[in-house]
User: Fold this.
Amino acid sequence: MGRLLAIDYGRKRCGIAVTDTLRIVATGLSTVATASLTEYIKNYVAGEPVDMIVVGQPRTMSGEPSESMRYITPGINKLRKELPGMEIVFFDERFTSVLAHRGMIDSGMKKMQRRDKAAVDEMSAVIILNDYLQSKQYTDRL
Assistant:
């Protein structure tokens, strides 16, 4: 069984998280510049077994895809083109940044550490992946 990889896609940088090979635990992997995302993911999947990529899909409060999708979609389409055999799915990411900040506060991180946007992006990717692992969308696939 291969890992699942999650991306919290942003205009400047992307947070990345992965599961262990048994898909029990999601952990932060890295934060990379958005311009380097495709190359980073290609290198990672060349060295690690990855079965699927889960991309956070920002949605409005009414459930519609948010305006951010207009820059996320082309980036993910590029990734699909470079990794044609890889399954890539979108998963609702509403409130992940808020939850990431709350998790940082609850874990005792100091205010200056919480201002590190890269850390927030990576933690958001972990939340997206954990939420996906607990979702009906994932369990229906098993």
In short: The mean pLDDT is 87. The chain has six helices and five strands. The two ends are 12 Å apart (CA to CA).
